[in-house]
Amino acid sequence: MTKEDILQVLSGVKYPPYSKDIVSFGMVKYVKCQDNFAEIRIYTGGDKTLAEKVVRESAEVLKKAFPDCEFNIGLLENNPTPPPRVPDKSAVLTGVKFKIAVASGKGGVGKSTVAVNLARAFSRIFSKNCARVGLMDCDIHGPSASILFGSSVFPTVNQQRKIIPPEIDGVKVASMGMLVDDEQPLLWRGPMVTSAIKQFGEEFEWGDLDVMVFDLPPGTGDAVLSTVQLMPIDCAIIITTPNLLASKTALRGAMVFEKTNIKIAGVVENMSYIMVDGKPEYVFGQGCAEEVAKHLNVDILATIPIDKTLHTQSISAHSQAIFDDLAKKLLNIAKGSLCITGLS
Description:
By secondary structure, the chain is α/β, with parallel strands linked by helices. It folds into two domains: 3-75, GMP Synthetase, Chain A, domain 3; 96-335, P-loop containing nucleotide triphosphate hydrolases (Rossmann fold, 3-Layer(aba) Sandwich), CATH 3.40.50.300. The chain has nine helices and 15 strands. It has helices at 3-10, 48-65, 111-126, 145-149, 190-202, 222-230, 244-259, 288-296, 317-335; strands at 28-34, 37-42, 70-75, 96-103, 133-137, 156-157, 163-164, 167-168, 171-174, 209-215, 235-240, 263-269, 274-276, 279-281, 300-303.
């Protein structure tokens, strides 16, 4: 029995509710083998009940694989591995009070539609005389903000060589869709994606804003990780749809924020229902968003209908009221548990 043998067996132990195993997550911190005895230490950094379940399951699979061996499996209270060096975010977006990410582990759930209409809802609150809301489209390979806003304005540059984001519907917008042609594919790898997002934060003249909305791409790739690491995000909302696959992958996407200590403010279910004769029809079923919220221990902040006006500049009164209510709930979270001051 070797260390590699033990890690191979433990790779079959999943960390609920995710499909990824504890070895891949880096939760097995210490393995020492001597003859027929092995000492193992595990750190999950999560719920204690789940952690104890992981330890019990680890003991079971190891005893089954090596019945003649003894194991001492302990649960660590603190992470013995020093965290990676975190980029300094203190000088980024210093004039922005409240910074919120809109994210999902699944593509096609209408995340960008939610981000743009949420930014518009914030602008109805704050941008009375001038733009006090920003939207950063961090989907470098598939930017959509300019399409959803219905305007593609090339940014200008001021005397300090800072890029001025165009203002659309009371929102200052940065998107690669405004910098390249719609037909031009961006065949960029990780470092270039990271550089682009860094430029959005450091080389754009955002000025003083009440709210910044980050529209993140789906999954947990370079653009998501770069945004989380480079931008001082206060909280995130997770977008899902009434679909089992979407809800499962939403949980996977949410783990990015759990691992980086960014608060998950709540879950938003998009394409939840369709209004028929003034009544909601749940054509895709119900209950998936509730499962996501339950696993993340947060509330469902909004259920958004299937509404073709969401992709236009004049959304329906019903949907506008939903987004206005969502914006107010997020501001209450900002003023409450996040202790952000200065928001009127």
